[in-house]
Amino acid sequence: MDYFKIGLIISTVIIFSSIVLLQYDILELNTVIDVFIIPAFIVNISLVFKVFKNKKQITN
To answer: What DSSP character marks residue 60?
Structure first.
């Protein structure tokens, strides 16, 4: 489950970066959503699908 740990670290860094950029008004809201929030969401969804896929293989 090394990919899970790395994925969570990447997602956390992306979300933290977006919070910092929004706090100091470095980028506009739409830019932060497009560049940081959507990729973090994609990383989290892919991790969820990998976990469910692995659990399904184990149960079968």
So the answer is: -
User: Which tokens go with 29?
Assistant: 């809201």
Q: What is the pTM of this model?
A: 0.80
Sign, CA dihedral 40-44-49-53, equals positive
pLDDT band at 14 (very low <50, low <70, confident <90, very high): very high
CB atoms within 10 A of CB 56: 9
**Calpha distance 27→34 (Å, rounded):** 11
Q: How many CA atoms lie within 13 A of 50 on its CB side?
A: 13
Q: Whole-angstrom Cα distance, residue 21 to residue 31? A: 10
